[in-house]
Design goal:
The complex is a heterodimer of chains A (311) and B (363).
Chain A: H1 2-29, H2 43-52, H3 59-72, H4 86-121, H5 126-140, H6 143-157, H7 169-199, H8 202-209, H9 214-226, H10 228-252, H11 257-266, H12 270-298
Chain B: H1 17-20, E1 25-27, E2 30-32, E3 35-48, E4 51-64, E5 68-72, H2 79-87, E6 95-104, E7 107-108, H3 114-118, E8 125-128, H4 132-135, H5 142-153, H6 158-171, H7 177-180, H8 190-202, E9 208-212, H9 220-237, E10 240-244, H10 248-254, E11 257-262, E12 265-271, H11 272-277, H12 282-289, H13 329-333, E13 338-340, E14 346-348, H14 354-360
Parallel strand pairs in B: 5-10, 5-11, 8-9, 9-10
Antiparallel strand pairs in B: 1-2, 3-4, 3-6, 6-7, 11-12, 12-14, 13-14
Classes of the chains: A mainly alpha (311), B alpha/beta (363).
The complex binds adenosine-5'-triphosphate, iron/sulfur cluster and magnesium ion.
């Protein structure tokens, strides 16, 4: 297990490095520069600025400089907002994005698993059909469409909830709803199908033959096994929610990372792009790593080191 | 290997005591007199897309305290459904008990609601399943799987339950039980797992053990060990056992009585030696004639030509008619009455009718 974790850790570093490198060269292959808009500024100032941000140096020197900044986790100042360092922007935006993401995951996991479990236990019953109808809709409607509909109906037409920003729990409801519906539907479907399969297993029959309470049979015997596939998709789902936050933040005017990220790309604000990409990919890769470990704990048959072969 | 041989059947062979002393069965020097389980005219059906499967069509038998009753018969004849019905494990709403009773010590189990039935499951009656590789929950430590039944049904502390479980593991022959409690099923071999399943079944000291093909999934040497374990447990606790099996070698080894099922009915029942040495139903005869010789490996009971009838629309007469070499006109139309040949031996076949005996001579 320890060996596996160490191994995975190095792979994690390698992955981040690859992502960072790709981002760097992609960014530099796109024409344009951070100073394109400022046509009025005179060439000397521009040259000085480029010098300040080391943009005048050859690409490989910039690359090495960039790697250094990753290692020290200091991406320097933003080009467009010279008063803010990239780290400062991250520190300001990320907690909000994280909050949105975490609340979404929590809502999606809890409601998805509950829904899927009840659907399976009432297989072919009304709850089952209703849950699956919801799931189909939830999976097929994109979150930005849902967000717009929610704002229009709940906020504008019925005036039930605030339409935008992130200032109170009440403000959090709509964005969370918009972002969590898709993942909830996916988790519900997956839980249901794997639960249906688990319910036919011999060990479930054995649990019933022991005269255990229905509660214990479902929670202790069925759910734990049924959740394996759910845990495996948590990684990709996390990525989906993470990128989803950018869009949702934009729609609901939430001052999270998404806003800075989109702005930085539009402005070719290299340090911000690099910083946030590296930070986000590191975060994601780390979450995937956690998911793997959780999986190992849930299923004792998967001794983590045995997965080395296909990891 | 000895368990596979057919004769000698048991040491009582040749004694006439049983015939003279009806309603008494003997095992070694014990006699069985108290009926503990009485299955009466059980009809069980399943609704499926193709229609209604009449899995049991009037199953009756008694089980005595302390005996081992073997239920044999071809695949699909209703052995498992019988076991599941007794155990209260018929999947609802697809499965339904249409008629009949399961009287366990005078209490009709078919009349109990779910929560009442839970007080019987694992407490009075326990079940052992065919495949030990799938019967244990892969994600729970075997210690928990052993003790949870006890903790559900009796007011015992965690440590008490643990100690009892460890002792039981020792009884069923698991070395280092204390450490093994912390392990997961995948860390045990098939034979070991079946021992654990047996220990789980025994934890609340049930009076009846239903084992549905408990050795089918195991290899030969392990099979023999598990059968010995059953005998040992019975000797120790006096538990009654219903043993469902395909393997007549297993029957020969540990059964006291045999019930032969065919198409959802018990067509012949009797003491082991009665059924083995003077089988009366043509189907039973067919089964026994097909008993494997030592030079053959396969022991599946599918030697009689033809297939059992469709249980969606079972025949009104004798279900064996289509395959029976002695079939008469009446067989197809009317189900034969049960004929008692001795106090312990009974058979459903028209050949027992006086009129048929005239036609065929004695048989
Ligand atoms: N849940 C169910 N739904 C529908 N039909 C069922 C169900 N369980 C059993 N049956 C049917 O009932 C009949 C008896 O099945 P059962 O499992 O008792 O046979 P068996 O004697 O145990 O056979 P085997 O030796 O293969 O285990 C079969 O025709 C089977 O198809
Ligand atoms: S009743 Fe008739 S068909 Fe059935 S077993 Fe007896 S002789 Fe054969
Ligand atoms: Mg069966």
């Amino acid at each position: 297990m320890a060996i596996y974790i160490v191994k995975r850790f190095f792979m994690m570093i390698a992955t981040i490095l690859i992502i960072a490198t790709l981002t760097f060269f992609l960014m530099h292959s796109i024409p344009g520069s951070p100073f394109d808009e400022e046509r009025t500024s005179n060439p000397t100032i521009q040259a000085n600025l480029e010098k300040f941000y080391k943009l005048d140096q050859p690409t490989h020197v910039q690359y090495i400089h960039y790697l250094k900044s990753i290692a020290t986790f200091d991406f320097g100042p933003s080009i467009k907002k010279p008063n803010d360092s990239v780290n400062k922007l991250l520190a300001r935006g990320f907690p909000i994005s994280l909050e949105l993401g975490m609340v979404t995951i929590l809502v999606a996991v809890i409601s998805g698993i509950t829904l899927g479990t009840f659907a399976a236990l009432r297989h072919n019953g009304i709850i089952d059909y209703a849950a699956m109808a919801f799931a189909v809709v939830g999976i097929s409607v994109p979150n930005f469409v849902l967000a717009t509909v929610l704002i229009q109906q709940l906020a504008v037409n019925w005036n039930l909830l605030p339409p935008a920003t992130w200032s109170s729990p009440l403000h959090m409801i709509l964005p969370t709803l918009a972002l969590a519906t898709g993942p909830t539907a996916i988790i519900a479907r997956l839980t249901r199908s794997s639960m249906l399969e688990v319910l036919t297993q011999d060990y479930m029959k054995m649990a019933r033959a022991k005269g255990l309470s229905p509660m214990r049979i479902v929670l202790r015997h069925a759910l734990r096994n049924a959740l394996m596939p759910v845990v495996t998709i948590m990684g990709t789902m996390l990525a989906g929610i993470l990128t989803g936050t950018f869009v949702i933040e934009k729609i609901f005017a939430i001052p999270g990372m998404g806003k800075y990220f989109v702005e930085s790309i539009n402005n070719r604000d290299y340090p911000v792009i690099m910083g946030s990409t590296v930070f986000y990919s590191a975060f994601l890769v780390f979450m995937l790593f956690l998911v793997d470990i959780v999986y190992g704990f849930l299923d004792p048959r998967i001794k983590l080191h045995r997965k080395e072969g296909d990891a | 290997m000895e368990s596979r041989k057919f004769a000698p059947i048991d040491e009582n062979q040749g004694g006439t005591a049983v015939a003279q002393e009806p309603a008494r069965l003997r095992k070694r020097n014990k006699t069985f007199t108290d009926v503990m389980l009485s299955v009466r005219d059980l009809h069980v059906s399943f609704k499926t897309f193709g229609g209604e499967v009449q899995a049991l069509r009037g199953v009756s038998f008694d089980l005595y305290k302390g005996e081992t009753l073997a239920i044999v018969g071809e695949s699909g004849c209703g052995k498992s459904v019988t076991a599941n019905t007794i155990m209260g494990l018929i999947p609802k709403p697809a499965g339904r008990i249409k008629n009949g009773n399961v009287l366990f010590k005078g209490k009709d189990l078919t009349k109990l609601d779910k929560s009442e039935m839970r007080k019987v499951q694992g407490v009075d009656i326990s079940m052992i399943f065919q495949d030990p590789m799938t019967a244990l929950n892969p994600t729970l430590k075997i210690g928990e799987q052993l003790t949870e039944g006890l903790r559900t049904h009796q007011k015992v502390s965690k440590t008490e339950a643990r100690q009892k479980a460890i002792k039981l593991l020792e009884v069923v022959g698991i070395p280092n039980p204390e450490e093994r409690m912390k392990q997961y099923p995948h860390q045990f071999s098939g034979g070991m797992r079946q021992r654990i399943v047996i220990a789980i079944a025994l934890i609340c000291e049930p009076e009846l053990l239903i084992a549905d093909e408990p050795t089918t999934a195991l290899d030969v040497t392990i099979q023999a060990q598990i059968l010995e374990l059953f005998e040992e447990i019975q000797e120790r606790t006096g538990v009654s056992i219903i043993l469902i099996t395909h393997d007549l070698g297993v029957v020969a080894k540990i059964a006291d009585r045999i019930a032969v099922m065919y198409a959802g009915k018990v067509i012949e029942i009797g003491e082991k030696r009665e059924v083995f040495y003077s089988p009366q139903h043509p189907y039973t005869k067919g089964l026994l004639a097909s008993v494997p010789r030592l030079d053959l490996k396969e022991e599946e009971l599918q030697p009689i030509e033809g297939t059992p009838p469709d249980l969606f629309a079972p025949p009104i007469g004798c279900p064996f008619t289509a395959r029976c070499p002695f079939a008469m006109e009446v067989c197809d139309r009317i189900y034969p009455a049960t004929t008692g040949l001795s106090a312990t031996h009974a058979v459903d076949c028209w050949l027992q009718d006086e009129r048929a005996k005239k036609v065929f001579g004695h048989n």
